[in-house]
Design goal:
The structure holds two protein chains of two kinds. In chain A, 51% of the residues lie in helices and 19% in strands. By secondary structure, chain A is α+β, with helices and mostly antiparallel strands. Chain B is an alpha+beta fold. Chain B contains seven helices and 13 strands. Classes of the chains: A alpha+beta, B alpha+beta. The interface between A and B is medium-sized, with 18 and 25 residues.
Chain lengths: 420, 261
């Protein structure tokens, strides 16, 4: 221990023999650390908001279905089959699971919406107008008019659909859907409002109606629903919460499928996984650039000390001890840089986290993988970002010292001392 | 998508009856040595310009429900037809008008007429195993299909032709192939099989209950079975059928769709 601590002290002292050079090298590494942590934070921030925004537009973060509902989405595959379920018991149980912030029942059907002159195919979503805002933003996205009221024959339609039908809030539409008994359910509905989510598929195809009147139109009993959409405090917990929820719901004696967004929003999950993989590339590039700079300065430092190493060797110092001096120097440099890096990174991260940088003056909202984002640069805290950046920094300083150490060992004592 | 399948229409839809009713008028002996194309061409030519009126009951059985509809059907040539629901009472008055390639539905409950958008032409008609598209009749078979005799000889002791219809490359038709079995003796069809992508059977239509309406022998019972749900069927039974009635294109108007009872 004492044996090795002396080498650390030598490394430390050597480091400060040329303060300016060490300070510059350490700054480069510290700045690399900052860039790495910040970029990962921004990437994670984008991913987080994609997931949060993407799942809050309409789907929710967990969905409960009849096991046979997906992927065919048959009208008849309601929760609990033909007998239906006690919907409020389900909602109560779901609300008791930790991390759940909202749950809402839904009924789906596909059919026609007609203004008389124009008719479009539409996907209908029957929602509880009181519970749905706790899960998705579809009703909050109503920009003209208002959301449909419970029990009223009212429909909210997407902006693109409204344009195609040539109608706005207050207009009367005929709604036609194949009902569960084989008949053609049809009735007159008033357009209560027009929503704009920014997702072309939703805005052109989706119509939202109160769940009770829609069940009536579909000839479904009030206890027959297709889905319970669930919102969580944190989307990243969805898988764990879903597993727990499956256990909790099994006590109700109805076979159900509880799926997190990573399953029913597969494309979003894959996009996000890809974005996370890109983080490693950021770290790699930043430190790959740094490693040459650091290796270069350390190589310079060893050349300057050729005579010194020659003396050490002449006095009986082993090649190993020479190499160790240089490598330890690199490690100490890494630790110093890391501390400096952490000191500059932490306050910037905290500040940007609290005050996201708004780019909406420069660009429109961004759409990808079924999600809509405001153009905000926000950083997410994570353990992973600083951790892999730290490891990368220390490895960089270690590897950057290896070649200079090798060169130092190869110094021929006699020639160096003779100034040859 | 909206404009596909000619044979489809004449075999499945109301036009079928008009088509088949003509068949016995063709002297079978004269046809025996002819090509499949000539057989179908004659049927097709004779089919056009005919009018009919029918009372039909339709039984639909699905995995989840079954129901029965009473229909009244009028048709004129290949361009026009009108179907009105007489029962069940809750839906009585609901009507479908087909003119050329377009389909309108009249909904008495809301007193509105709705044109079926092209994207839903492949959707089910009134919950049955017929699509809206099946109901639309148009054009001539020989223009859209390459027609050949796939089999000629005895099946279960009956001399038949099996005529294969393959859509021409440019024809807007969803089927990959249709095979149609016709009895040589009276030129009446016994079944039609519809094949989708990869020559996979998608549905089978069987003809039965041959009886005489207005001096013409026709299959009065028609059953559709989707290949992927063999327990589901739609059965159409003709109870009354009149030919060559006095109908003009004016009859097939949107106004008539909503007012006539």
């Amino acid at each position: 221990m004492t044996d090795s601590s002396i080498w650390w002290r030598i490394a430390w002292r050597n480091l400060w023999r040329n303060r300016r050079r060490t300070a510059i090298t350490a700054s480069a590494l510290a700045f690399g650390f900052f860039v790495s942590v910040f970029m990962i934070g921004v990437a994670d921030g984008i991913v987080d908001s994609m997931v949060e925004d993407g799942t809050r537009i309409v789907t929710g973060q967990i969905q409960v279905h009849d096991p046979g509902y997906r992927p065919e989405r048959s009208l008849h595959s309601t929760l609990g089959g033909r007998d239906g379920v006690d919907v409020s018991a389900f909602l109560d149980r779901i609300g008791e699971v930790g991390g759940v912030t909202g749950a809402a029942p839904r009924v789906y059907g596909g059919g026609l919406l007609s203004s008389g002159e124009e008719t479009v195919a539409a996907g209908f979503m029957g929602v509880d107008p009181l519970l749905e805002p706790g899960v998705s933003g579809i009703l909050a996205a109503v920009t003209e008019g208002r959301a449909p009221r419970p029990g009223a024959r009212e429909v909210a339609i997407g902006s693109e659909m409204a344009r195609k039908l040539g109608v706005g809030a207050g207009a009367e539409l005929v709604l036609v859907v194949p009902a569960a008994d084989g008949s053609m359910g049809n009735d007159l509905y008033t357009v209560s409002g027009v929503f704009r989510t920014g997702l072309p598929g939703l805005d052109a195809f989706q119509a939202v109606v109160p769940i009770d009147v829609f069940q009536d139109l579909l000839a479904l009993e009030p206890n027959r629903i297709h889905e319970i959409g669930i919102d969580l405090r944190s989307a990243s917990a969805a898988r764990d919460v879903a597993t727990e929820m499956e256990v909790v719901l099994s006590s109700l004696g109805v076979e159900v499928a509880v799926e997190p967004w990573t399953v029913f929003r597969r494309e979003l999950y894959e996009y996000v996984s890809m974005a996370s993989a890109a983080n490693s590339i950021i770290v790699f590039i930043v430190f790959a650039m740094a490693i040459f700079g650091v290796a270069n300065t350390m190589l310079m430092a060893t050349y300057e000390r050729r005579r010194e190493f020659a003396v050490v060797r002449a006095l009986g110092g082993t090649p190993g001890s020479v190499a160790r001096t240089v490598v330890f120097e690199g490690i100490v440099l890494g630790v110093v840089s890391l501390i400096a890096g952490a000191l500059i990174t932490a306050p910037v991260m905290m500040w940007v986290h609290a005050h996201p940088i708004d780019l909406s003056g420069f660009t429109d909202e961004i759409r990808a993988a079924g999600s809509v984002m405001r153009p905000l640069i926000q950083v997410a805290y994570s353990v992973k970002g600083p951790l892999i950046s730290s490891v990368a920094l220390l490895l960089t300083s270690l590897f950057a010292a290896l070649y200079p150490a090798f060169r130092a060992v190869r110094v021929p004592p006699a020639d160096a001392l003779a100034g040859r | 998508m909206a404009d596909r399948v000619r044979i489809d229409h004449c075999v499945t839809s109301i036009g079928l009856i008009a088509a088949l009713s003509i068949l016995p008028l063709v002297p079978p002996a004269g046809l025996s040595g002819q090509s499949a194309l000539e057989i179908v061409d004659r049927v097709d030519r004779l089919m056009r310009g005919e009018s009919s009126q029918a009372r039909v009951s339709m039984e639909i059985v699905t995995e989840n429900w079954s129901r029965s509809l009473d229909l009244e059907i009028w048709s004129l040539g290949t361009e026009y037809s009108l179907v009105r629901l007489l029962a069940p009472p809750r839906e009585a008055g609901t009507a479908t008008l087909m003119v050329a390639q377009e389909v309108w539905n009249y909904l008495p409950r809301v007193d509105r007429t709705i044109k079926v958008p092209p994207s839903l032409m492949m959707g089910s008609w009134m919950g049955s195993h017929f699509t809206n598209d099946d109901l639309v009749k148009e054009g001539r078979l020989i223009e859209d299909y390459d027609i050949s005799i796939a089999f000629e000889g005895a099946r279960d002791g009956v001399q038949v032709w099996e005529i294969e219809l393959v859509p021409k490359p440019e024809a807007p038709i969803v089927w990959d192939k249709i095979v149609w079995q016709v009895r040589q003796a009276d030129l009446l069809p016994t079944w039609a099989r519809y094949y989708g992508e990869g020559d996979e059977l998608e549905r089978t239509m069987t003809f039965d209950g041959y009886r005489t309406f207005g001096g013409r022998l026709v299959p009065a019972l028609l059953t559709v079975i989707p290949a992927d749900k063999p327990r589901e069927t739609t059965t159409v039974r003709y109870d009354e059928l009149l030919f060559d009635i006095d109908l003009s294109p004016d009859f097939f108007s949107l106004r008539n769709l909503r007012t006539r009872r």
